[in-house]
TrEMBL record:
Keyword Metal-binding carried by entry: yes
CDD domains: EFh
Single annotated GO MF: calcium ion binding
Domain of life: Eukaryota
InterPro entries referenced in this protein's UniProt entry, alphabetically: EF-hand-dom_pair, EF_Hand_1_Ca_BS, EF_hand_dom, Myosin_RLC
Protein name, as recorded: Myosin regulatory light chain
Pfam family, one: EF-hand_8
Organism annotation: Oopsacas minuta
Amino acid sequence: MSKHRLMTKSKSRHRRATSNIFAMLDQSQIQEFKEAFNIIDQNRDGYIDSEDLREMLASLGKEVSEQYIQDMLDEAHGPLNFTMFLTLFGEKLSGTDPEDVIKNAFACFDEEGTGKIHEDRLRELLTTMGDRFNNEQVDNMFQAVTPDENGLFDYIQFIRIIKYGSKDD
């Protein structure tokens, strides 16, 4: 097989793999990924690069090495535009337990790995980032699992309630 034909075949296989992700997700999921992409794409050039990742992680209070950022970018096979971003997340999420997805989202802000986040920090995150909650929605969450005497919200217990219902059910 000629080199040109191999490259063309490889490109079409890659194109097919990335286009299948649009069939796997509904429109609202794609829109949520688009919003996440736009939050990360700090310079609004349509691509996520090392500077975008560094700024986004810094805004979350995370300082990471250049190698860490490069390792993240190396997962993409080429420039990280929205289609590639969607494909990477689709691959990561396919076959993932929704409980794990929720737990990992909380765990990003649980520096000590205790299963708890301070209520003030959680309120700030939920009302200022991504799909923003209003204060009433955060209060409802804190009613489901009341933060302890130190103001720590037990997100592991909260996930259990989401999955299995409250103890009162």
